[in-house]
Automatic annotation (TrEMBL):
Membrane-crossing residue ranges in chain numbering: none
Organism of this sequence: Duganella guangzhouensis
Entry protein name: tRNA threonylcarbamoyladenosine biosynthesis protein TsaE
Gene Ontology CC, one term: cytoplasm
Pfam assignment, any one: TsaE
Amino acid sequence: MQHFTAHLHDEEGTAALGAALARALAPGLAIHLHGDLGAGKTALTRALLHAAGHTGTVKSPTYTLSEPYQVQLNGRAVSVIHFDLYRMSSAEEFLDAGFREDFNGDNICIVEWPEKADGVLPPPDLNVFLTVAGNGRDVELQASTALGNSCLQRLHFAPNM
């Protein structure tokens, strides 16, 4: 399986990675974002959505738990659903909300705090680990399925030096 690591020196590096990921997206992709508060999970998602063509505001779904966005990928309308599970008190809340149905071959699901729904959250195609490192971030991307592997094969990103 594909694996990618880089050091992002600043917020512009995070935005550039989000833009590169947007160019590598495919319908059906499930991305789990891991990292402490302030590690850049929402900033990465915001950059990805804007690069994928969303022109409006991208707000953190901390209180709503999910926010859907419509983008065009290769001329096809695709829903990108951004989940933030930080405020969930149990994995059952994920099931009760009906979120599992969003994970299908058509939508792209990006999940912050996936550990809050351990055991019920569909497995990721791609894990993204963000860690604060000085003024920047260390990032690691790990594919765990063929779809995640093909996403990383399409990823063209040179970290800012």
